[in-house]
Amino acid sequence: MTLTTQFPEKYLAVVIVEDNRYVRQAWELVLEAEEDFIVLGSYPSCEAAFAREEIARADLVLMDIGLPGMSGIEGVRYLKEHYPHQTVVMCTVHDDDEKIFDALCAGAVGYLLKNTPPEKLVDALREASRGGSPMTPSVARKVIASFQQKPVTTPTGEEIKLTERERQILERMAQGKTYNAIARELSLSMDGVTYHIRHIYQKLQVHTRAQAVARGLQKRLIRPPR
Fold first, then answer.
1. Which residue from 43, 47, 107, 48 is spatially nearest to 73, judged by alpha carbons?
2. Nearest residue to 49 via CA among 65, 59, 66, 63
3. Is the entire prediction scored with pTM above 0.70?
4. Rounded distance, CA 122 to CA 131, Å?
5. pLDDT at 94
6. pLDDT at 190 over 80
7. What fold, for 164-218?
8. Cα 185 to Cα 181: distance, rounded to the nearest angstrom
């Protein structure tokens, strides 16, 4: 479904990205039954949604993670780069720690599970539009637990600490910035950035950017991106 009429500002304009047709239609019906929501478009993939002009007019995007082609996490990064004003809420079956933190680091402000009751889904989207960060209780507990964990240590029990420069780089990685952008901001060469990143990976015992950011957030080595 796609609407092209202009609506009063009191409405919350929503775009849905979900590959399961039945779930997508259910979300449409739930939101269209509310007087303060307008569904501008409903699409089975990020590629289909991003090719339409409605995406630029959305106040809020409700998105799945496990999408064909571009994943929901990649989709969030795209939206935050091209439409930074938009609010993105993930609604997915995945509740494992890495996907939660990857989605939040990419720029999503909320993380709901698909078994969320319709009335709670509506309330969560309203909360997100007002600046909140709605999360399914089980997801919120995981996030809170991650901030209550002991500092990350080596196998011998030695606490791992990042240098100030490593922390600065890892925080910018969490913000989704490219290595070139990090180098410019911190007045470093690309070789200097990759040198520090290599040490970050070694200290955190990870192999990818997503793992490094998730570990840094979980262990409170860096602040969550704003």
1. 107
2. 63
3. no
4. 15
5. 80
6. yes
7. Arc Repressor Mutant, subunit A (1.10.10)
8. 6
Distance between CA 116 and CA 122 in Å, rounded? 10
Residue given tokens 């490219």 in the structure block: 178
Q: Which of 4, 92, 78 is nearest to 41 (CA)?
A: 4
CA 118, CA 149: separation in Å to the nearest integer?
A: 33
Can you name the residues that pair with 90 across neighbouring β-strands? 63, 111
The pair of three-digit structure tokens given for residue 215, joined into one six-digit string: 């570990």
- The CATH architecture one would assign to domain 12-146 is 3-Layer(aba) Sandwich (3.40)
**Region(s) of the chain under CATH 1.10.10.10:** 164-218
Closest CA to 196 of 219, 211, 212: 212
The residue among 10 and 78 whose pLDDT is bigger is: 78
- Would you state the pLDDT for residue 4? 43
What is the torsion angle, in degrees rounded to the nearest 10, for the CA atoms of residue 212, residue 216, residue 217 and residue 222?
-130
For residue 138, give the amino acid letter.
S
| DSSP code of residue 20 | -
The span from the CA of 176 to the CA of 117, in Å, is 32
Instruction: Please determine, for residue 175, whether its predicted confidence score (pLDDT) is greater than 70.
Output: yes
The per-residue pLDDT for 205 is 84
Helix spans in 17-96 (H): 21-32, 46-50, 54-57, 72-82
